[in-house]
């Protein structure tokens, strides 16, 4: 098995064996990610970091990952920083970046843009998030965070909360969790519930999901609570956003009946859905989760560019 030269657009592009390989490799990368060890594994390689939609964690962790492995980075941050603003097509932009680099990581506001871009690039393309579509590398670091805590994914109960309609992180994650033997609850207002095609795919994998809008009732049975923000930028009308803007919030009081080992995760950024006082509890894992993007993306870059 090798990931060398492979596009990573959808979490289903990866077999379970490939996911496990990435997670195992990520564990070996932690000391390098923290600067305790050095590496020149990707010396001479260049990453094109093309982020046509705002990003903090994904862009910076990919760029950190490449540099920790001795490689170089060229970057576009925002459409206004590229010739797209002049009318150049995305296909032509990808062709140019492909010629300047060895691998492309791209975020784009349009669902399907990453898959299309992969058809125009000779080098591998990694999806850093495409609209309300998928975010496969976020899923990998989420799985890594859970596995580091519990030693397994199989048998865990994960409660996904918030914007499940537009939340690309929850789309990718729910599919991966189902494939790996976890059970799930989906907690959201009706107008931003998990899309039917995701629910159907999860059920076809043999996993029954509990769909509800009662977060408090789900806390006692959860091993992981995966919070997401309500994404204002995805709503066509502000009035619709305001109807659901403050639907769920985790405060210390709601955690009184939680399992002692339960962890709270969040892909970040957060707005007001997790009270800052929760940061100091043993349940909080979202900042560790954000760091885990570095070793996981290091592992992925090395495997895609160099193989094992």
What's the structural blueprint in terms of helices and strands?
Blueprint: H1 16-33, E1 46-51, H2 57-68, E2 72-77, H3 90-100, E3 103-108, H4 113-120, E4 125-130, H5 136-150, E5 157-161, H6 168-179, E6 183-187, H7 196-204, E7 209-212, H8 215-218, E8 224-227, H9 238-244, E9 263-265, H10 286-291, H11 293-306
Helix pairs in contact: 1-5, 1-11, 2-11, 3-4, 5-6, 6-7
What this model shows, in words?
- Helix 2 (57-68) crosses helix 11 (293-306), helix 3 (90-100) crosses helix 4 (113-120) and helix 6 runs parallel beside helix 7 (196-204).
- The chain contains 11 helices and 9 strands.
- It has 2 domains: 11-135 and 292-306, 3-Layer(aba) Sandwich (Rossmann fold); 136-290, 3-Layer(aba) Sandwich (Rossmann fold).
- The longest helix has 18 residues, at 16-33.
- The radius of gyration is 19 Å and the shape is globular.
- By secondary structure, it is an alpha/beta fold.
- It has a 5-stranded parallel sheet with strand order 7-6-5-8-9. Strands 2-1-3-4 form a 4-stranded parallel sheet, with helices on both faces.
- Helix 7 links the parallel strand 6 and strand 7 (209-212).
Keywords for this entry:
2 domains; 308 residues; Rossmann fold; single chain; 15% strand; 4-stranded parallel sheet; alpha/beta; 5-stranded parallel sheet
């Amino acid at each position: 098995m090798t990931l060398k030269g492979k596009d990573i657009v959808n979490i289903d592009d990866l077999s379970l064996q490939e996911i496990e390989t990435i997670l195992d490799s990520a564990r070996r990368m932690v000391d390098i990610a923290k600067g305790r060890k050095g590496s020149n594994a990707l010396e001479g390689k260049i990453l094109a970091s093309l982020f046509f939609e705002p990003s903090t964690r994904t862009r910076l962790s990919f760029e950190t990952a490449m540099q920790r492995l001795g490689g170089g980075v060229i970057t576009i941050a925002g459409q206004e920083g590229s010739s797209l603003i002049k009318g150049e097509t995305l296909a032509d932009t990808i062709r140019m970046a492909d010629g300047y680099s060895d691998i492309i990581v791209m975020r784009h506001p349009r669902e399907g843009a990453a898959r299309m871009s992969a058809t125009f690039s000779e080098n591998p393309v990694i999806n850093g998030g495409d609209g309300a579509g998928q975010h496969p590398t976020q899923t990998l670091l989420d799985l890594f965070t859970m596995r580091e805590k519990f030693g397994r994914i199989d048998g865990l109960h994960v409660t996904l909360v918030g914007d499940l309609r537009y939340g690309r992180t929850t789309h990718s994650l729910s599919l991966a969790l189902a494939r790996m033997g976890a059970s799930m609850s989906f907690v959201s207002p009706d107008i931003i519930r998990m899309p039917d095609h995701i629910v159907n795919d999860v059920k076809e994998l043999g996993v029954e999901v509990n769909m509800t809008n009662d977060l408090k009732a789900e806390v006692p049975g959860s091993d992981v609570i995966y919070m997401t923000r309500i994404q204002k930028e995805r709503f066509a009308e502000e009035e619709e956003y305001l109807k659901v803007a403050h639907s769920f919030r985790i405060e210390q009081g709601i955690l009184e009946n939680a399992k002692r080992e339960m962890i709270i995760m969040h892909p970040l950024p957060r707005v007001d859905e997790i009270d800052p006082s929760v940061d100091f509890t043993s349940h909080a894992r979202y900042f560790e989760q954000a760091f885990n993007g570095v070793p996981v993306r290091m592992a992925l870059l090395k495997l895609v560019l160099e193989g094992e």
